[in-house]
Amino acid sequence: MLTSIEQLEAIYGQPHERAVRKQIPFLNEDYQAMVRASPMVVIGSAGPDGLDSSPRGDAPGFVQILDEHTLALPDRPGNNRIDTLRNVLHDPRVSLLFIIPGIGETLRVNGSARVSAEPELLERFAVDGKLPRTVLLVTVEAAFFHCSKAIVRSQLWNPERHLDRSTVPSAGAIHKRLDEGFDAEAYDRETPARVQASLY
Predict the structure, then answer these.
(1) CB under 8 A, 24+ apart: contacts of 5-11
(2) Domain limits, the chain
(3) Torsion sign, CA atoms 23, 109, 45, 122
Protein backbone atom coordinates (compact mmCIF):
# COMPACT_ATOMS: atom_id res chain seq x y z
CA MET A 1 0.00 0.00 0.00
CA LEU A 2 1.37 3.40 -0.99
CA THR A 3 1.39 5.97 1.81
CA SER A 4 3.40 8.94 0.52
CA ILE A 5 3.60 11.39 -2.37
CA GLU A 6 7.21 10.33 -2.88
CA GLN A 7 6.12 6.72 -3.51
CA LEU A 8 3.56 7.88 -6.06
CA GLU A 9 6.06 10.09 -7.85
CA ALA A 10 8.55 7.22 -7.97
CA ILE A 11 5.97 5.29 -10.02
CA TYR A 12 4.47 8.10 -12.11
CA GLY A 13 7.24 10.67 -12.35
CA GLN A 14 6.34 14.32 -12.94
CA PRO A 15 3.48 15.63 -15.09
CA HIS A 16 4.32 16.97 -18.53
CA GLU A 17 4.88 20.72 -18.67
CA ARG A 18 1.76 21.20 -20.83
CA ALA A 19 -0.37 19.33 -18.28
CA VAL A 20 0.66 21.88 -15.66
CA ARG A 21 0.52 24.95 -17.92
CA LYS A 22 -3.07 24.30 -19.04
CA GLN A 23 -4.33 24.96 -15.50
CA ILE A 24 -5.19 28.63 -14.99
CA PRO A 25 -7.08 30.49 -12.21
CA PHE A 26 -9.84 31.84 -14.47
CA LEU A 27 -11.91 30.94 -17.53
CA ASN A 28 -10.16 32.10 -20.66
CA GLU A 29 -11.88 32.32 -24.06
CA ASP A 30 -11.35 28.63 -24.85
CA TYR A 31 -12.60 27.39 -21.49
CA GLN A 32 -15.61 29.68 -21.70
CA ALA A 33 -16.45 28.15 -25.09
CA MET A 34 -16.44 24.69 -23.49
CA VAL A 35 -18.78 25.84 -20.70
CA ARG A 36 -21.20 27.32 -23.23
CA ALA A 37 -21.20 24.12 -25.32
CA SER A 38 -21.82 21.79 -22.40
CA PRO A 39 -25.31 20.47 -21.59
CA MET A 40 -24.02 18.37 -18.68
CA VAL A 41 -21.88 19.06 -15.62
CA VAL A 42 -21.10 16.85 -12.64
CA ILE A 43 -20.62 18.71 -9.35
CA GLY A 44 -18.44 17.25 -6.61
CA SER A 45 -18.89 18.52 -3.06
CA ALA A 46 -18.11 17.55 0.53
CA GLY A 47 -20.25 17.81 3.65
CA PRO A 48 -20.53 16.54 7.22
CA ASP A 49 -21.99 13.22 6.01
CA GLY A 50 -19.36 12.60 3.33
CA LEU A 51 -18.81 13.26 -0.36
CA ASP A 52 -21.25 13.70 -3.23
CA SER A 53 -21.21 13.86 -7.03
CA SER A 54 -24.35 15.26 -8.61
CA PRO A 55 -25.18 15.46 -12.34
CA ARG A 56 -26.79 18.66 -13.68
CA GLY A 57 -28.07 18.92 -17.22
CA ASP A 58 -30.01 21.31 -19.43
CA ALA A 59 -29.69 23.02 -22.80
CA PRO A 60 -26.10 24.01 -23.70
CA GLY A 61 -25.24 27.28 -21.99
CA PHE A 62 -27.43 26.57 -18.96
CA VAL A 63 -24.37 27.26 -16.82
CA GLN A 64 -23.96 31.00 -17.26
CA ILE A 65 -20.62 32.79 -17.21
CA LEU A 66 -21.04 35.98 -15.17
CA ASP A 67 -17.37 36.86 -15.67
CA GLU A 68 -14.11 34.99 -16.14
CA HIS A 69 -14.02 34.15 -12.44
CA THR A 70 -17.69 33.36 -11.78
CA LEU A 71 -20.17 30.70 -12.94
CA ALA A 72 -23.88 30.49 -12.12
CA LEU A 73 -25.77 27.16 -12.11
CA PRO A 74 -29.56 26.98 -11.68
CA ASP A 75 -30.93 24.28 -9.40
CA ARG A 76 -33.67 22.61 -11.45
CA PRO A 77 -36.28 20.27 -9.90
CA GLY A 78 -34.83 16.95 -8.82
CA ASN A 79 -35.18 14.48 -5.99
CA ASN A 80 -35.19 17.28 -3.38
CA ARG A 81 -32.30 15.72 -1.44
CA ILE A 82 -30.32 18.94 -2.14
CA ASP A 83 -27.11 17.13 -1.17
CA THR A 84 -24.90 19.58 -3.07
CA LEU A 85 -26.54 22.65 -1.55
CA ARG A 86 -26.37 21.22 1.97
CA ASN A 87 -22.70 20.42 1.45
CA VAL A 88 -21.85 23.88 0.11
CA LEU A 89 -23.32 25.50 3.22
CA HIS A 90 -20.96 23.34 5.28
CA ASP A 91 -17.91 23.39 2.99
CA PRO A 92 -17.90 25.75 -0.03
CA ARG A 93 -15.31 23.79 -2.02
CA VAL A 94 -16.66 22.30 -5.25
CA SER A 95 -15.33 20.60 -8.35
CA LEU A 96 -17.10 20.70 -11.71
CA LEU A 97 -16.68 18.39 -14.69
CA PHE A 98 -18.18 19.73 -17.94
CA ILE A 99 -19.05 17.10 -20.56
CA ILE A 100 -19.81 17.89 -24.22
CA PRO A 101 -21.54 15.27 -26.42
CA GLY A 102 -19.31 14.03 -29.21
CA ILE A 103 -16.21 15.81 -27.81
CA GLY A 104 -13.39 13.88 -26.18
CA GLU A 105 -11.99 16.66 -24.02
CA THR A 106 -13.75 17.65 -20.81
CA LEU A 107 -13.34 20.77 -18.68
CA ARG A 108 -12.49 20.62 -14.99
CA VAL A 109 -13.19 23.62 -12.77
CA ASN A 110 -12.37 23.80 -9.07
CA GLY A 111 -13.48 26.60 -6.78
CA SER A 112 -15.78 27.70 -4.01
CA ALA A 113 -19.55 28.08 -4.13
CA ARG A 114 -22.37 30.08 -2.57
CA VAL A 115 -26.12 29.44 -2.70
CA SER A 116 -28.26 32.40 -3.80
CA ALA A 117 -32.03 32.93 -3.92
CA GLU A 118 -31.72 36.54 -5.09
CA PRO A 119 -34.81 37.23 -7.27
CA GLU A 120 -33.01 38.99 -10.13
CA LEU A 121 -30.53 36.12 -10.38
CA LEU A 122 -33.32 33.52 -10.41
CA GLU A 123 -35.03 35.43 -13.24
CA ARG A 124 -31.97 34.94 -15.47
CA PHE A 125 -32.72 31.22 -15.50
CA ALA A 126 -36.48 31.24 -16.09
CA VAL A 127 -37.82 28.57 -18.47
CA ASP A 128 -41.44 28.91 -19.57
CA GLY A 129 -41.98 31.27 -16.64
CA LYS A 130 -40.62 28.75 -14.13
CA LEU A 131 -37.73 29.82 -11.91
CA PRO A 132 -35.15 27.67 -10.17
CA ARG A 133 -35.44 27.76 -6.39
CA THR A 134 -31.78 28.70 -6.01
CA VAL A 135 -28.67 29.38 -8.07
CA LEU A 136 -25.21 28.12 -7.24
CA LEU A 137 -22.53 30.78 -7.71
CA VAL A 138 -19.07 29.30 -8.24
CA THR A 139 -15.90 31.34 -7.88
CA VAL A 140 -13.31 29.79 -10.18
CA GLU A 141 -9.96 28.99 -8.58
CA ALA A 142 -8.57 26.54 -11.14
CA ALA A 143 -9.68 25.56 -14.64
CA PHE A 144 -8.13 23.14 -17.11
CA PHE A 145 -9.19 20.84 -19.90
CA HIS A 146 -8.80 17.10 -19.52
CA CYS A 147 -7.49 15.10 -22.47
CA SER A 148 -9.74 12.72 -24.41
CA LYS A 149 -8.19 9.38 -23.35
CA ALA A 150 -10.95 8.43 -20.90
CA ILE A 151 -13.68 9.15 -23.46
CA VAL A 152 -11.76 7.32 -26.19
CA ARG A 153 -11.13 4.27 -24.00
CA SER A 154 -14.76 4.13 -22.86
CA GLN A 155 -16.11 4.75 -26.40
CA LEU A 156 -18.74 6.85 -24.66
CA TRP A 157 -19.89 8.61 -27.83
CA ASN A 158 -19.84 5.51 -30.05
CA PRO A 159 -23.53 4.74 -30.80
CA GLU A 160 -22.62 1.13 -31.58
CA ARG A 161 -21.64 0.71 -27.93
CA HIS A 162 -24.82 2.24 -26.51
CA LEU A 163 -26.79 -0.24 -24.43
CA ASP A 164 -30.44 -1.14 -24.64
CA ARG A 165 -32.35 0.18 -21.59
CA SER A 166 -33.26 -3.40 -20.62
CA THR A 167 -29.57 -4.18 -20.01
CA VAL A 168 -29.65 -2.67 -16.51
CA PRO A 169 -32.42 -2.62 -13.89
CA SER A 170 -35.13 0.00 -14.39
CA ALA A 171 -35.77 2.69 -11.79
CA GLY A 172 -38.94 0.86 -10.80
CA ALA A 173 -37.08 -2.42 -10.36
CA ILE A 174 -34.48 -0.71 -8.18
CA HIS A 175 -37.21 0.77 -5.98
CA LYS A 176 -38.97 -2.60 -5.75
CA ARG A 177 -35.82 -4.35 -4.51
CA LEU A 178 -35.71 -1.82 -1.68
CA ASP A 179 -39.47 -2.03 -1.03
CA GLU A 180 -41.18 -5.32 -1.98
CA GLY A 181 -44.63 -3.73 -2.07
CA PHE A 182 -43.59 -1.12 -4.61
CA ASP A 183 -45.41 -1.20 -7.98
CA ALA A 184 -42.41 -1.20 -10.32
CA GLU A 185 -44.39 -1.65 -13.53
CA ALA A 186 -46.65 1.34 -12.85
CA TYR A 187 -43.69 3.47 -11.84
CA ASP A 188 -41.74 2.67 -15.01
CA ARG A 189 -44.82 3.12 -17.20
CA GLU A 190 -45.51 6.58 -15.74
CA THR A 191 -41.88 7.74 -15.62
CA PRO A 192 -41.58 9.35 -19.09
CA ALA A 193 -44.63 11.58 -18.57
CA ARG A 194 -43.64 12.35 -14.98
CA VAL A 195 -40.14 13.38 -15.99
CA GLN A 196 -41.37 15.62 -18.80
CA ALA A 197 -43.92 17.30 -16.53
CA SER A 198 -41.35 18.09 -13.84
CA LEU A 199 -38.29 19.19 -15.84
CA TYR A 200 -38.67 22.81 -14.73
Answers:
(1) none
(2) 12-148, 163-197
(3) positive
Answer for the pair 156, 123: CB distance below 8 angstroms, yes or no: no
The CATH superfamily holding the domain 12-148 is Electron Transport, Fmn-binding Protein; Chain A (2.30.110.10)
pTM above 0.90, yes or no: yes
Q: pLDDT (tens digit, 9 = 90+) per residue, 107-162?
A: 999 999 999 999 999 999 999 999 999 999 999 999 999 999 999 999 999 999 99
SS3 54: strand
Residue type, 22: K
Measuring CA to CA, which residue among 27, 6, 57, 44 is closest to residue 139? 27
Exposure letters 150-163 (e unless 16+ CB within 10 A, then b): ebeeeeeeeeeeee
